[in-house]
Amino acid sequence: MSELNIEVNGRRFKRDVVDRTHLGDFLREDLRLTGTNLSCEHGVCGACTVLVDGKPVRSCITFASACEGRQVTTIEGYDNDPVMLRLREAFNTHHALQCGFCTPGMLTTSRDIILRLPDADEARVRIELSGNICRCTGYQGITAAVMSVLKALREQPDAAIEALREAAMQGKAALPPVADAPKPFTGFEAAALSTSANAPAAPAATPSASTGAPASAASAGKGTNIQGGFEVPFSADQVWAFMADLRAVAGCLPGAVIESQEGDEVKGKIAIKFGPMAAAFNGAATLERDDAAKSAVLRGSGQDSLSQSRAKGDVSYRVTSLSDDKARVDVDLLYSLQGPLAQFSRSGLVQDFVKRMIADFGRNVALRMAQPAGSTEPLPQAEFSPFKMFMSVLWARLKRVFGGQ
What we know:
The strands form 2 sheets. Strands 6-12-11-10-9-8-7 form a 7-stranded antiparallel sheet. The protein has a 5-stranded mixed sheet with strand order 2-1-5-3-4, with helices on both faces. By secondary structure, it is of the alpha+beta class. It folds into 2 domains: about 180 residues, Ubiquitin-like (UB roll); about 180 residues, 2-Layer Sandwich (Alpha-D-Glucose-1,6-Bisphosphate, Chain A, domain 4). The radius of gyration is 27 Å and the shape is elongated. Strand 11 and strand 12 form a beta hairpin.
């Protein structure tokens, strides 16, 4: 046994440890910092990577006693770190994590790349990440996340990050700022919710007059954002009247069925098939309309009964007049998936697939609106060939890759 004096995440600790105790075991067992994951315990997988004096090390093959007087930073110690704040957001945006087991070590290595290699290209980033094994994502999202942070810092440098880079270049410890001491828990205070009819309502999402974009909740939450649009050979007033009829709109969207409707609230399901992936989400949605701006947001959520994946999204759209007998509908889709299907949600092929669905939806709208006025015949549910659509999207991508128009 020997006495160990060590600083972890800005706090000093003094412990008696067995000389053969590894740093990873000490962090997890003695200090209860379980964000550091242990897997191979041979220094191969990188899941246990932490900072020692600002440099990444494998905690599973580093003896705790060798860290006498050192400064250690684990994943729990990055709350005020300007680099990690950017990386965490980028990892979420680019879907750079799935099961999350490798993520603490992957983020630590990524932070080192940002500070040490500000001009790294994708090939160099992949080499630097090769010491961290991820068995889920295929590294595409991780690489994209790191590259996005590097690009943003090249375009607009951050003074706090530049200071950390300078320290690293001089061989000093580029440590994250010490987090504020946690405040003691003081309990909750009950508050009555206002039920007055005169209570002010939360402002509804409104479109941006300067950009002409549809109303969107993109700023209110995070997820995958896809934009598209289509033109319809009818006046803007006619198109808006049609788009406000949720049952008619559902009849134009392949796989969508409205089972019940009460005002602007609907319940139903939507079936999706993309190659080997198939899901049927049952849920509810609410339409928020702005008749003056001819814009609306359909907010919905649902769950797939088979995979138990959960989906939540906002479909924002705005109708603008192009001429007396022609209008355009701009669509902004913001969605997030949780569960087994989340791994499919951000791939480029899936996003192209959704854009093609938006275009096909526009054609269906034009066909439905062209039906004779006063017709009482029920509209048949829109159908499409998943294989045909998949092949058309794939062909379009291949043409782009090989320089086709």
